[in-house]
Amino acid sequence: MTQAYDIVVIGGGNAALCAAMTAAETGARVLILETAPKPYRGGNSRHTRNFRCMHTGPLGPLVDDYSEDEYLADLIKVTGGKTDETLARLAISSSEECLPWMQDHGVHFQPSLSGTLSLARTNAFFMGGGKSLVNAYYRTAQALGVDVLYEAAVRHLELDGDQITRVDYSHAGQNRSVSPKSVVVASGGFQADTDWLTRAWGPAAQNFLIRGTTYNRGIVLADLIDQGVQTVGDADQCHAVAIDGRAPKYDGGIVTRLDCVPFSIVVNKNAERFYDEGEDVWPKRYAIWGRLVAAQPDQVGYVIIDSKSLDLFMPSVFPPLKADSLQELAQMMDLPAGTLEHTVSTFNAACSDSADFHPTELDGVSTTGVTPAKTNWARPICDPPFYGYSLRTGVTFTYLGLKVDKTAQCSTANGPIKNMWAAGETMAGSILGQGYLAGFGMTIGTVFGRIAGREAAAYAN
Fold first, then answer.
1. Bridging pattern class, strands 386-398 and 209-210
2. Strands 401-402 and 231-232
3. Which domain range does residue 249 map to?
4. Which tens digits make up the pLDDT trace of 335-375?
5. Which EC class heads this enzyme's classification (predicted)?
6. Residues 320 and 306 sit within 8 Å (Cβ to Cβ)
7. Measuring CA to CA, how many Å separate 383 from each of 50, 202, 305, 354, 398?
8. Whole-structure pTM value
9. Residues contacting residue 206 through CB under 8 Å, at least 6 positions apart
């Protein structure tokens, strides 16, 4: 490198871009090192579609209001209290100012999608999805003078005492180095490294599908851990969703997610139910199903619905299997037909009056006398044709990451690293101890990306 840079940002997704733009607006000279080639830039952010936003009164596409306390309560519920409340409140309270900032930096929004999402009050949807957001940010970053190197794989950050002195990476077949004044690490988790997943989860991880980019392999994370940078979170905690079993091994994205679970029964390969499909509205509980399926034999589950539920959820990217009888559907799905018919008849007998059925909110239409119970949206599965999907565990991102403070700064046991900050999935475990809340990953990335960019620029300047 012949040009001197004030700041190097490692990663090319939402958090990295927010950091780069924020730093560049102070006059800092910024370089983004993105491992992916240009067509695949953006990490997991290109697969997103919304971010969760606190607001007092209507804001942009958001209706009504969504208070800090309600937002935090939603987060506490899905994480089981495993969160750093100080950092969580910082992410939540800062999210309100993010929406107009995002618009100012090229992002366009649209009304929320219909179906089981029902997020018009809580989540702002990107027009064109995450790919459009990523493209808009790269255009803005370029206009601000940010340089980007694609296919630049960072291998090592030299930690000398309390500061990073050198960033080593490969590009165009050569090993190169750069020595910036500040570094922002926004290179995601390690979910694309199935060997690392297997060390954390055991052999079951070999059956997992990876929803996002193939480039988040945790190379930078592992390098920093080896040098004593403090971490947070558990290696076996992650944002894992039950996705269509026909999805590709990598990079299937958000379209492989299935939103039909609340209106179904879900069985394992033995045709037995194993959890309450109607526990809560889908945006708050969809992320637990990846872990639930992971605990089943062969890490697979099967969704069973009937014709009256087919139009109640977002259409699937692959059409469901269709049969005129449960026996025929069981044969198509390689399930024991007799057991499936018994499971469905037992469930149907436990359903009560469904007159109060309401697909977009908790309706209390529940079962009685069956285990596990279904506590909402419990209607008999009795109207042919019947439909089925296979489910696999789809990992979005891992929660073992870099521990940060409220300024996004990283530390060792000896104290803060003077010139290194982290943002996005690589530090999300600081807030997400377990579980997930729809759109919250983009909130964390946006808030802490801006903080990291601001702090890195202040140090460099």
1. parallel
2. antiparallel
3. 240-394
4. 999 999 999 999 999 998 888 999 988 999 999 999 999 99
5. oxidoreductase
6. no
7. 35, 41, 9, 14, 40
8. 0.92
9. 194, 198
